[in-house]
Structures are given as structure tokens and as C-alpha cells.
Amino acid sequence: METRPVATALKAAPATPVELPDSGATRFDHVEEAAAFSSLRAKAARYLKPDDLDRLEEAFELACVSHAGQFRISGEPYVFHPLSVAEILAQWHLDVQALISGLLHDVMEDSHVTKTDLESRFGKTVAELVDGVSKLDKIESQTYQQAQAENFRKMFLAMARDVRVILIKLADRLHNMRTLDAVRPDKRRRIARETLEIFAPIANRLGLNTLYRELQELSFKNTHPMRYRVLGNALRAARGNQRELITRLMSSIRERMPAWGVEAEVFGREKHLFGIYRKMVDKNLSFEQVLDIYGFRILVSDIPGCYLALGALHELYKPVPGKIKDYIALPKANGYQSLHTTVIGPNGLPVEVQIRTNEMHAIAESGVASHWLYKDDTAQSLSDLQRKTHNWLQSLLELQSTSGDSSEFFEHVKIDLFPGEVFVFTPAGQIRNLPRGATAVDFAYAVHTDVGNRCVACKINGELRPLRTELKNGDQVEITTAQHAHPNPAWLSYVRTGKARAEIRHFLKTVHQEEATQLGERLLAQALRHLDLQLADIGTTAWERFLKEFSTKLREDIFTDIGLGKRLAAMVARRLADLQDEKSVSDGEPVSKTRVIAPVLIQSGEGMAIQMARCCRPIPGDPIVGLLRKDQGLEVHMNDCPVLTRNHSAERDRWVDVEWEAGAERLFDVGIRVLIHHRRGILARVAAAIADQEANIQNVNMENENGGDTIIHFTIQVKNRPHLAQIMRAVRHIPDVVRIVRDRTTDRPGEKH
């Protein structure tokens, strides 16, 4: 909202809740406002009932009272803004509840009208809609970005419950963008960037194409005013130069359609400035090099007519290879359907043509608003669009449940706002629409969260491929899952969808915290043993005093902090021991002196809270020591690890005694280096010898050695040191193998971390 006080208008604002006008009142204080409302009422009267119009008038009176004395920066009375918002909503034929909410969308922010007031007068639905659009109260400690992220979070969740929330907000933003000239330049640019990043993509995602294009144009005008003017002048000049050519091309298309038995309307259209500008930037072109600044649209009565029109057009003008897109068979995520083709017109001019039915055109221009605009004509198409919109809105609720804070949630939603460009298939032939650049992991999460969390491999078009493989149009993807698999943190570096990113982060946070809590409890128990105490010896009183001292409610929080390296187990143990001793002495009890010292056991199923150090890659049987790293948990190193030796003095207080648990069954990564005489097939023989010993090969890299020999670096998975020794013996017996050693170097050529 942009308001400016006139005289002492704002100072005179009522300090107590305003009185709502009596129902049925029709008296307005200002002729100009009354005239503006008459325009709104006339538009609404085309489709609303008389009783609804009376309720709309009542809402307008409340808006006048609530915004009395408030002015926009332009000097215009503020009430004209909600009037304009409601008029935009009336153009979309939204119901009376939405129009009332548009008129009152700012009253909760700018006056003393409460949600309860609105509910008592206009009903619960209107109150919820207005509340969904209203900003949250500002929290002083928040940055602008944090506050805005929280406001968007509230808006998106309200939108997920009722799509009219975002339609009101979009109408609000459209009118603000249309009247942005009075705002200071820096704020104008910020609002325009926000519109381009958030509101325009939302409009596109909901299929509101006309609104989407206007928001883009207005954003371009306010972020780059000089470029906007220069490009506009160039387009007007080009329009005059090519007018005759475009007219001739349109006439020839109109004449050709009846010969193919197609009744069609043909329209010429000029590309939007923002679209031309983006093409110039993306492809590094000058304006003169952007040839397809004009396009045509062909509207027919049914789907067969679309394909007939395409054939007629291609007979008339040659199509550009690779520029034919069938969005009828494969609709976009926002419900958009059309055939797109680019043909070479007269004088070699490339022209884009869109072919669609009248129903498709209605949805393409109005998206979800078509639900109100064209209820009787496009029932089947709208039901598909409503289902897709509903699914997307439900996905917002899923993101809310898995995102940690507002900024993270906002990031995930922004990722999903940009339109899907890749259509891929499940093995059963179902279509999944994903953003360009999406990977097999994104596909797995699109199928189901559990499929994503448990995926271990994928087949793309019947061939095994890495999970990070980017998908292309038409790919058939099959995901392999495993019961005990879980998301890999490395996936976050290449997934593209907000759902995948949110689910991975949620899993890692949850599991990491659970494992950190268990680890912290074990570390504290170990530290207490050094002080001749068992964890069970620490009584409730000692724990309560300790938690109070450190302003913590639960002892599990202390365990988690220890497991994440935020607190040292030795210090916590020492303070707990002191508190327990004080309690025992006060009660006249003897202090136990039984000394039991036991290291932390590294179990077979350790997860993210206990990690094997990548610098030395210990395996069961190696002498080891633990290093507690802040926010990372326990890192297990070999005793003679060079990295550990370098940090000997600096991190000595974070070292933890650890031992391998007997009978560990998990596989551990280890490096081996094999020096060979380079002979045909030697790599295959070495790999086969490793596989014969039931070991997995994770990575292979080769480098030439002086004298013609070759060094092969393997990363393999083994159970323990005896298993590794068995593998090395098998490889050593192969002819042409000169030497094999365990690779203890920190960085291995060609290996991805």
C-alpha cells in the first residue's frame, strides 16, 4: 500500500474501532467515489444477483469509512485503489465474496477493522480471504527480506486453501504496477523486480496469460525504463516498415484454410517488448537480428481442426525444423493447450503461429479465472485445469510441512513457479511434467516422497544411468528403490524441483537430529564414566538444575548439542557430576567411586551423525579415533591420519575414544592404487578380480607412469581389513600387476566428492 497523509488526516484517524455502516445504507459522502462505484456495480450487474449488488455496496461504504483521510502517493484518495482492484476481479467474473474482499483487502492493515468485524458483517469466507491477502504485523527484529518471506508464506498457504486469495492479490499487484509512476525510483525498481520474480510467474502458473504478459511489460518498464523506451521506438518503426508484408501473410493464411475444410479466425499479434528483450539478452542479439517480432493466432472450432490447420499452414509455408510443439497432446502444467509452429514467410521472414480451439484460447488467456468466466462452455477443459491447479496448491501445503523457515519455504515455491518444460513418462505410460534441468531424483520425488527417499538407481529409456542425469522430453524413467536407502546430501546440488529439495532437507534434518541425539547420549555416558559415574546415576534434581542453568527445557536438547559438536561432552559431564555430588552430599549419601571406562562403539548402521573421514577412509580393523566437529557430528579417523596429526594440538579437547563394534556388516569406501604393465584387457581383469571377491567398485581413474606403466586408482567398498587383504591378494596374483597398495592420499584424481 502507498499512502500519504493530507493535512492532519492520519493524525485524526480514530483510536477506537470504526463503526460499521448499517446494512442497506446507500449514502456516499463523495460524488467521485460514488461515480467510480457505479462503474464497478455496472460490471458486476452483468452476472451478479441484485442481493449481491447490495452487499457489494455495503462493502464499499465500509471501505470509504476505513480509508477516510488516506491518500496514495499520487494524491488520489486511497479508496480508488480497492475500487480498481474489485473492478479487475469483476472483469474475471469472480463471485461477490471475492469482489467484497477486493474492496476490503486493505482495511485490516490500514484501519481498526478486525477480522471478527468482517466475519460478523460479511461472513467467515470474506474474513478469511481478506486475512489471507493482508500482510503480517511487522516484527522489528526482522529484515525486510525475512518479513517479506513470511508474508509470502502466509499468502501462499491461504492461497492453497482458496485460490481466490491469490487472484485478489494479483489484481492488487496489477493496479499497483499500473500506478507505479508516483513512487520513488528505487522503490519502483524493487517492486517491479518482486513482481517479475514472484507475481508474474504465479499468474503464468495459474494460466492467467493476459495478466502474466502485462505484469512482465510493466516490470520491464520500471526496472529498465530507458531500454523499454528505446525498444518501443524500434518496434514502432519496424511495424511501419513491415505492415504490408504482415497484411499479405495474414490474408494468404485466411484464404488457404477453407481449402482444407477448416473454418478459422486468423489474428495477427505483435510480440511483447519484454519477450523481445529477453530473447535479445538470452541469445546475445541486436533488435535487428530478432526477426520473429510478429506472430499469428488461428482459432478453430475443435481439436481435429487444429491439426488440419497445421497441415494447411505447412503446405503454404515451410516449417522451421525443431520448432513444432504440440501442447494439445502434452498440455503445460498450467493447463495451456495449443499447437506452436514457426514457418518461413515471404522474404524469408520467420513467423510464429499458434493454433488452438476457442475453448483453449479462453483458458490460455484467463487460466483459473475461466472457472468463473466460462462456466458453461468449457466444463471438461476446466475440470482438468482445476485438478492440476488443485494438485499444485496441495503441493504448497506439503512444502509448508517440510520447510524449516519462511525463507526456505519461499525458496522452494520460487523454484516451482517457473513453468515445466520437460515431459517424461513413467513405465506405465503416465506423463510427468518437470522443470527443464530436472533429474531422475526430481522424477522420483514427483512420483512419491517415499520413492524419492528410497531411490538408489534409475533406468532412462531402458538403460542404467546416474541419478543426477538431466531428463529430456520423451524420456521413460524407471526408479529402483531399496528398503534401507535414504537421501544423499549431494542430491541438493543438482535437484531442480522445490518438492525434491524440501523433502531431502526435511529428511536430512530429521534423521540428522535423531542420530545426533543418540550420539550425544553415548558421548555423555562415556564422559561420565571417566568421572566414575553412570548416566543413570544423574538424578532428576541434578538434571533440572543443569537445564535451568543453561535455559534448556529438555535433556534431549543437550544430547543433540553434544552430538552436533555444539557442546563438549566432558564439560557437560563435569557440571552434571558436580550437581549430582552436591545432591548426594546434602542427602548424606556416599559418592560412587567405581571406575568404568569404555569407548564409543562405531556401529554397523551409523548414519550422518557419525561419518568416516574422507581424508583417510578408515575401515573396521583399523585403529581409530573420533573427532567431534561443530554442527557435523563425530568424524572417525585412523590413528595415524595426516589431517588429524596436523590438528593435534588445536582440537585435542574434541578427540573421542572410539572402537569398532564387533560384527559390523555395512560396506566402507577405501582406496587402492594398482601399478600395472599396460596390456590389452588388463583393466577388465583387475576389475573382475575385485568383483569376484564380492566388492563393489565405486570409482576408477587411470594415469600414466614414467616408463610406460599405468597407475589405476580404485575406490572400492569392503567389509573390513581382512576383506581388503583378500581383495589385494587376488589382484596381486594377476600377471602384469606390478604393485598394489592401499591408497591413503587425501585427493584422488578424477574422483567426485
UniProtKB/TrEMBL annotation:
Domain TGS, first and last residues per copy: 420-481
Q: Name one GO molecular function term.
A: GTP diphosphokinase activity
Q: Which UniProt keywords apply?
A: Transferase
The EC number of this protein is 2.7.6.5
* All residue ranges annotated as the ACT domain in the record: 671-746
Boundaries of every HD domain copy: 78-177
Record's Gene3D superfamilies? 3.10.20.30, 3.30.70.260, Beta Polymerase, domain 2 (3.30.460.10), Hypothetical protein af1432 (1.10.3210.10)
Q: What class of enzyme is it?
A: transferase
Give the family, as the similarity comment puts it. Answer: Belongs to the relA/spoT family.
Q: Describe its function.
A: In eubacteria ppGpp (guanosine 3'-diphosphate 5'-diphosphate) is a mediator of the stringent response that coordinates a variety of cellular activities in response to changes in nutritional abundance.
Report the protein name in the record: Bifunctional (P)ppGpp synthetase/guanosine-3',5'-bis(Diphosphate) 3'-pyrophosphohydrolase
Q: Which organism is it from?
A: Uliginosibacterium paludis
